[in-house]
Amino acid sequence: MQPPSEQSLRERLAALVQDAGDSAHPHASAGSLSRRKRHVEELAATSLKLLDDGLDIGQLKLLDLAVKEMRRAYRIFNRYRGVRKVSIFGSARTPVTHPDYHAARDFGRLIAAEGWMAITGAGDGIMKAGHEGPTREASFGLSIRLPFETNANDVIAGDDKLLSFRYFFTRKLMFVSHSDAVAVLPGGFGTMDEIFEVLTLIQTGKSPIVPIVLVEGLDAEGKPLGYWKRWEFGVVENLLSQGWISPEDPGFYEFAANPADAARRVLRFYHRYHSSRYVDDHFVMRLKRPLSAGQVQVLDQEFRSLIKTGHIEQTHEAVGEEDHADLPRLRFHFAKRAFGMLRRMIDRINGFPDDPAP
Fold first, then answer.
1. Which residue has the higher pLDDT, 198 or 8?
2. Is the pLDDT of residue 357 over 70?
3. Where in the chain are the domains?
4. Average pLDDT score over residue span 312-327
5. Whole-structure pTM value
6. Using CA atoms, how far apart are residues 232 and 189, in angstroms rounded to an integer?
7. How confident is the model at residue 6 (pLDDT cuts 50, 70, 90)?
8. 11 pLDDT band (50/70/90 cuts)?
9. Cβ neighbours of 279 (radius 10 Å)
10. CA-based diameter of the chain, in Å?
11. CATH classification code of 82-268
């Protein structure tokens, strides 16, 4: 018996996907539904090709479990679309009496009071503090199965927003893809891995720019304990002196004087800036409120290095987009380099007066 041709399999897959329907998005546009089904067909077709690729059982198991982990996580997170979220990183070993613990708890409480939700690793230490502040209702827990640490702290245990991961890479994907901000408290190798993962993704344009605030506990005089200044001196300044990072790259993160200052810095990032995305070769920034013609001209002049051709234009048309169609936009042909300068541009936009002269 001859095996079915690829064309035959494609036709059968298309019919199968069509029969499965799309009950989760009954009001989506025809174009959006068509694209969704096409991607599901591609995913199914790729899975079938694994039979001919010579993968062993361990490799197939990894792919199977990874996709299942991502599917479940996306399903849970998608229930809270439109709600801003902050990932809180830090050591699982931080005692509850430590000033860093208090800082994480206070920051989580303050940002939750502004309508945000917190995402932490679900363990003890800073992760538990990051749940205590916002409380269980406003928290996600992304636990990783390790032989020497508890799976979940008693704040988030049993909640349907507690997600368990076998693989670090799927867990990291969920942290990064659902975070509108990142707050980092002192920690060890794991915390360093997390902060450098976020910095690398933003520096290379693989992840949207979000505020990254470095937070720590306060000493008896009410001053930061100094962990992050020592970190910057020992790590970042060494990289700068060697030329391994650009002068503007340290601008991706900010030092917070205290938890309240950290919350203010996160909120300030979204004072006027809303979000961004690529549309073909153009970079589109969505704004909460429009800029004046003069302000757009200032941006065009100050950030010429980011523009490949043409000029920065402000528009109210969501060309090639479906999300947030009501928001004004800045649109320009992006050179796709110097993402640290792009962060500076966002800061400049947020710093403009709200009621400028026309």
1. 198
2. no
3. 6-79, 82-268, 272-351
4. 87
5. 0.92
6. 15
7. confident
8. confident
9. 13
10. 81
11. 3.40.50.450
State the CB neighbour count (10 A cutoff) for residue 272.
19
At residue 133, the pLDDT reads 97
pLDDT of residue 109: 98
C-alpha dist (Å) from residue 308 to 159, 282, 286: 48, 10, 20
